[in-house]
Amino acid sequence: MPQLGQSSRSMLFPVFLLIISMVSIQSSATLAKTLFPLIGPEGVTALRLGFSSLILLAVFRPWRNRVPLRAWRSIIVYGVALGFMNLTFYMAIKTIPLGIAVALEFTGPLAVAMLSSRKVVDFFWIGLAVLGLYLLLPIGDSIENVDPKGAMLALSAGVCWALYIIFGKRAGSASGSASVALGTLVAASIIFPIGFYHAGTAMFSPSILPIALLVGIFSSALPYGLEIVALTRLPSQTFGTLMSVEPALAALFGYIFLHEALTTGQWAALLCIIVASIGATMTIGKSKTAIKEIET
Questions:
Q1: 67 CB burial (10 A radius; 0-12, 13-18, 19+)
Q2: Which backbone phi and psi does 106 adopt, to 5 degrees?
Q3: 139 burial class (0-12, 13-18, 19+ CB within 10 angstroms)?
Q4: For the chain, what is the domain count?
Q5: Distance between CA 263 and CA 81 in Å, rounded?
């Protein structure tokens, strides 16, 4: 019992880091979108990842420690997934509402949570999160009004998000904090040429670079640095379920910064998702299987 209580307390730290990460991402989302008319989502993604990789390389300095050869496969897949997760999501929110895009993207981590579930109670929390996501979709907007291409891009971002969770955990376990810096460098190396092809030299405008730097810090460098720590300390199921807070935060920050009024159904969705996240955290704190996974 004492060991169980100590393990439960040790989970509070990675959960706290994950919450900060999600707040950082959502609070900077509206800032990133203001640059779309100037350099497009491709250019914004390229600058975001470019600045993020430079910051993370300077902070973690991965060259100081030798990265095991077996870790490079996970780092590369992690970086590719990270790059296209950012690109496809930004391209999606260009044509579909942010709330719908976040809900569709969440199918990725939700699938990870469902596939790794081991107990009946886990499916209850996941089901509650699914109900919250369903209620979170804008009431009154029929599916015909959702751009099919944007919806497919958001679902593609969800697939990349699932790969990001799986291979980010593996990379972080094998090479620690160096993996997030190297993975982001891989992502930037792939996406930057795409962004430059679409936006050209406008990406380097003095009026754009400072905003892009802020986006890079709060949308990528800070949250991904925190997430890689959380990924190595939380089972994939718990990480995926806790990320259900993401659509709720998107709606909340939309209300605060964009003055988007929430409907009764959307408030109910927030409650469902928050309760599901709290329930998942409490369940994992009592799970011997989860504790063993964390300790190993």
A1: middle
A2: -65, -10
A3: exposed
A4: 1
A5: 34
pTM: 0.78
**Is the pLDDT higher at 49 or at 112?**
49
Q: Is the pLDDT of residue 292 over 70?
A: no
- Tell me how many degrees the CA angle 258-273-140 measures, rounded to the nearest 5: 55
Query: CB under 8 Å to 35, separation ≥6 — which residues?
Result: 43, 44, 208, 211, 212, 215
pLDDT band at 82 (very low <50, low <70, confident <90, very high): very high
Cβ distance 218 to 24 under 8 Å?
A: yes
In the block, tokens 């969800």 appear at: 158
Enumerate residues 6+ apart whose C-beta is below 8 A from 208: 35, 38, 39, 47, 202
C-alpha–C-alpha distance, residues 56 and 221, integer Å: 6
115: containing domain: 2-295
b/e burial code for range 89-115 (CB count within 10 A of at least 16 → b): bbbbbbbbbbbbbbbbbbbbbbbbbbe
The residue behind tokens 């914004």 is 44
Please tell me the distance from the alpha carbon of residue 263 to that of residue 40, in angstroms, as a whole number: 31
As a three-state string, the secondary structure of 206-225 is: CCCHHHHHHHHHHHHHHHHH
Supply 272's token pair: 């469902």
pLDDT tens, position by position, 211-246: 999 998 998 778 877 887 887 787 766 776 677 677
Average pLDDT of span 43-69: 87
Q: Please write the tens of the pLDDT for every residue from 86-142.
A: 999 999 988 877 777 887 787 787 777 667 666 777 778 778 877 877 776 554 454
Return the DSSP state at 256: H
